Amino acid sequence: MTGFLQGSATAMITPFTSDEINFESFGRMLEYQIENGTDALIILGTTGEPATMTDEEKDALMRFAVERAKGRVKLIFGTGANNTQKAVAATRHAETLGADGVLAVTPYYNKCTQNGLVEYYRAICEATSLPVICYNVPGRTGVNILPATMARIAQIPNIAGIKEASGNMQQVLATARLIRGKCDLYSGEDALNLPILCAGGTAVISVVSNLAPAQVKALVQSVFAGDLAQANAQNDALLPLIDACFCEVNPIPAKAAMELLGFAAGAPRAPLTAIEPEHLAALRRTMQEFGLEVKA
Q1: Position 60 in a domain
Q2: Which one of 32, 120, 121, 135 is the catalytic residue?
Q3: Model confidence pLDDT, tens digit, residues 68-79
Q4: What pLDDT was estimated at residue 295?
């Protein structure tokens, strides 16, 4: 299927207190995204730290997002797992709660074959009527959706597209060629948002848009309008901020950046640690140079 996701989507962080989700802060973050024109919110993606959350916390976060934002912005919940049965159950649950779509990361650690990937996504899609986005991030999972495999997966009726975070533009272009007209291509790597959009990507799923949602949306709009000179200028401005947001493993810098903007993001959960002081100083400086209002 095509046309499910267009524009800018934010891979939302999950704000924590010392021992629980900070729902007040999360509500403020939802409003910040909606006010700045973000088209979709990805809840419980990698940036949201679901690997360190209980099933009860995930359920509560999804319910909160639906209550606060359903109908105002597209809500996409992360439901992938390294256990197909668990991914299927999570996907069914997301649908009952009111998700508009789901994001399913490849099965990590088990390192299934390419045939295994096809069957994994087939099982998820057969369990739901929702659009399903494949998430390819081999640097985290150890599994890579090869272009020929994605062409097979794209034949499954409710596959909406692939979030590409392989970092390999040659592979991205090969995938784009094979899935064009069958399902959509989304950028899952901020540093490659511009080239992936220019290759026919219909959306970006962005980490840096946690802190700069309006600017990321503007970049997407410039590409869609065919104004590549403006898009290049916007991308040039964003690149230092993107670099700063990935100076340590995601979402450590993104959570620190949101704290600097005055949102109570809290520290990431172990085994992730607080940002290193020198990286925090560089992040603050880059945000100020970009024009963001640093409050902390």
Answers
A1: yes
A2: 135
A3: 999 999 999 999
A4: 83
Q: Is residue 243 part of a domain?
A: no
Q: Could you write out the DSSP letters of every residue in 85-139? A: HHHHHHHHHHHHHT-SEEEEE--TTT---HHHHHHHHHHHHHT-SS-EEEEE-HH
Q: Is residue 191 part of a domain?
A: yes
Phi, psi of 32 (to 5 degrees): -60, -40
109 catalytic, yes or no? no
Which residues span the domain enclosing 78?
7-214
CATH of residue 153's domain is 3.20.20.70
Domain count for the chain: 1
- As a whole-number percent, the residues of the chain with pLDDT over 90 amount to 98
pTM for the whole structure: 0.96
Distance (Å) of CA 199 to CA 143, 190, 223, 275: 23, 15, 10, 34
182 flagged as catalytic = no
Q: Over the stretch 175-185, which tens digit does the pLDDT of each residue have? A: 999 999 999 99
Q: Taking residues 164-173, report their average pLDDT.
A: 97
- Kindly name the residue from 163, 186, 217, 255 that is annotated as catalytic: 163
